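Lab notebook, bench 4. The sequencing result for the construct came back, and we need a structural model before the next group meeting so we can plan mutations. Quick request posted to the team channel:

Model the 3D structure of this chain.
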Amino acid sequence: MQDTKPLGPGPGPLLPDPVRRLAAWCAVVLLVAGVVYVGIRLCVEFRTAVVPVLLALLGTALLRPMHRRLVGAGVHRSIAAAVTCVAVVAVVGGAVYIVVAAIVDSGDQIVHSLREAARSLSARFGPAGSSLEDVATNAPKLLGRFGGTAASGVLSGVSVVGEAIAMAVLALLLVFFFLRDFHRAGDALRAVAPAGTADTLEAMARRAFHAVEGFMRGTTFIALIDSVCVTAGLLILKVPGAVGLGALVFVGAYIPYLGAFLSGAVAVLVALADRGFVIALWALGVIVAVQALEGHVLQPMVQSRTVQMHPAVVMVTLTAGASVAGIVGLLLAVPLTAAASGVVHELRTRYEAGEAEGEAGDAGAGETGAEEA
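Done. Here's the predicted structure in token form:
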């Protein structure tokens, strides 16, 4: 009988376990980055359809409380959605008319004040001020060239105004349908979700929408208070173009940090040029006081239920949004990031809950085995 030698252990893994884990994570990161890149490129290519959808989602998040109250009062969902859209058109149209009229009436005065401020800085600081004076003097030409460059990049045969009107109409129609059929969104997601993932997908969508809803409502409320306070302060200081500058503050509030800095800088420069150094310091004090009120009182109070993001994340997000889609990217970057943060938070919560249930199940099984023994 021939002796058989026991087989020894097989060869070990080629790479250590930490290296294999790192390689797996690198593959996941590259895969996710590739998917995100392809998605961004597709959104850029189909921006005429994608941008209205995103704007409609933001509008739905902002207007849903009004629609919900109308439905709660017994109004039919379609009529409530139509009334909400008509009210929004009336309010936004009136506000745009007031803001545009104020900017048109005070625009020349603001540009003249900025030019005077540039000359004052040129006299005080030499070459740096001269550069600022050149920018202020050539501002209309620069804007015209920028507009011409932007117009040349639009799809052939479609003007900038026509495309903007088409996108606005499409976004308004989508807001109507989103408001009317919002209660069916959960069933629609469950219908297209793979087996076993319907609850998770619906929870992720709800968390993302609630994050965007909180961001839009909170930002609008804060922007309104900021613009009213800044306008009142500038009117008291008798700064020219106070209403237009307040409107600029309101619009800039939707671009965190960067918008407040730019609108505040314009207000201070206008005050410096037209009212002198002392009034400019008072205007700077008004801007700083309003920003302190926003940062220490309004944001913690109003946006305490929304997704909080670190300022560094916000700045990187704004830069990426501007590089991808310009001004529209600046407006959409933060709410989309808030939605993504809400999705990540929901996934982490579910993962931690699953781990806790698994540990509890293992502990219960151990106790049962000990009792049987």
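Residues 268 and 280 are 5 Å apart (CA to CA).
Will bring this to the meeting.
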